[in-house]
Amino acid sequence: MRISGFASGLDIDEIVTNLMRAKRLPVDKLTKQKVSLEWQREQYREINSKIVDFRNNKLFNYSLTSSINAKQVNISGNTTAVSAKTTPNAVAGSMTIEVASLATATSVQSVAGQGIGTVDTSLTLSQLKAANPNFTYTADAQGKTTITINNTDIVLDENKDTLRTMITAINNSTTAGVNAFLDSTTGEISISAKNPGATSAATIAPNGLLDSFNLDAVTAGTDAQIKINGISTTRSSNTFTENGVEITLNNPTGTTAATLNVVTNTDKIVDTIKSFITDYNNLLDSVNAKLGEERFRTYQPLTSEEKKELTEDEIKMWESKAKSGLIRRDNVLSTMVNNMRLASMTNVNVAGEDIHLAEMGIGTGKWQDRGKLVIEDESKLRQMIEADPNKVVSFFTQKTTVTDPTLKVSPTNPDSGLFNRLSNSLLSAVEQLAKKAGTSQYSSDVAAAFSSASNMGEQLRSIDNRIGDWNKRLAIIENRYYKQFTAMETAMNRFSAQASSLFS
């Protein structure tokens, strides 16, 4: 038991607290180190998130053929008979399309007037069979009956399935490859192949439930009859791809052909390059801001005791300065920024010709811009795209054929396009940050968990262990102080009792 000041009148708890305050200085120092390290790690995660997002999302999307190698197809002449859109492999040039007839699908349907009559589609097959003499089929002992379409068996339960669920089962079958329709007023059914063309099929096996519907009216499928640039040809589908253009036939062209002209979409390519430059500059700004942030070394994290002496605004101001400059001049990020600049400033060799950003009217701005890219002459960029779009696209997206592992990922590899150079430089930084701070190499989530297997993770574990050891020692010291004061109080109580007996 602790005896606190009964005899001496001293505030023992206050005295011990003051004595322990000095003893706790090493723990407070370690705690400040831990908080500072945690703040630093969080700042690495914020920057890493922006790097991963730029590399894995934005840069990846800019590298897609649909973004940087954009083409469009313009239709003239008969603009309603044919529609078209470009694919990534679209070839610049023109085509004339004449449509004599569309492709049609094979179909079978009930002979007119020979359906099973009005039907209630909510009745089960067995109920319908009992109510309608025109509806006949056989079922096994378990009530199962099978219909076969294009060699695909569809099993129905006469006690559960209805004509509505039968139609649904037919349409949902991926192997039967047909669409079915039931007219509940006439009890007639139509079944047609999902894909058109002369080879399309809608074959119904005999001696099944569908025999009741007299599916004897058969229409054979046909191929589309067309001319492409004057050459007569056929297509089994009304949608097909020619020279990288996806063409859809809507109706016959008659006397006016449709002309498809594939051209480079200069506006879209320029917009893609502009968006890339904006995102590139935003990333550079974020990283450079942290690399150049002022460090206030006299401002350290506050302990809980220190915070009690300050207002909320004072705490906020103090911690703002304490967090400033924690990753100033970081080696990993500084190297990444230098590599990004090198990647942008170095020529790319396209088909034996060295191409530089300046030739496209793109510069690196003023010195104080710290490597940011600027479109200085947009007309120059547009002229180069229109003159040779493949050259511009290759400058950004060219894949290297170099096998040397060091040169392959180098920011100055002349065989590698700008996007690939940047991707490699950013990947290297992300991998190093993962080792250093435990940040994610794949997620741009600013709340993503840290990996414990990192240098900073090990440092934090070490500090936690040291704090734990110190707290155990402080507990022993504190108990010793209380024992000493308790002994003093006990002695004073004994002395007081003896004095009282002497003078009583």
Automatic annotation (TrEMBL):
GO cellular component: bacterial-type flagellum filament cap; bacterial-type flagellum hook; extracellular region
Record localization: Secreted; Bacterial flagellum
Chain ranges of the Flagellar hook-associated protein 2 C-terminal domain: 221-495
Keywords, alphabetical: Bacterial flagellum, Cell projection, Cilium, Coiled coil, Flagellum, Secreted
Main location: secreted
GO annotation terms (biological process): bacterial-type flagellum-dependent cell motility; cell adhesion
Domain Flagellar hook-associated protein 2 N-terminal: 8-105
Pfam families cross-referenced by the UniProt entry: FliD_C (PF07195), FliD_N (PF02465)
Superkingdom in the source lineage: Bacteria
Record-linked InterPro entries: FliD (IPR040026), FliD_C (IPR010809), FliD_N (IPR003481)
Subunit structure: Homopentamer.
Protein family membership: Belongs to the FliD family.
Function, as annotated: Required for morphogenesis and for the elongation of the flagellar filament by facilitating polymerization of the flagellin monomers at the tip of growing filament. Forms a capping structure, which prevents flagellin subunits (transported through the central channel of the flagellum) from leaking out without polymerization at the distal end.
Protein name in UniProt: Flagellar hook-associated protein 2
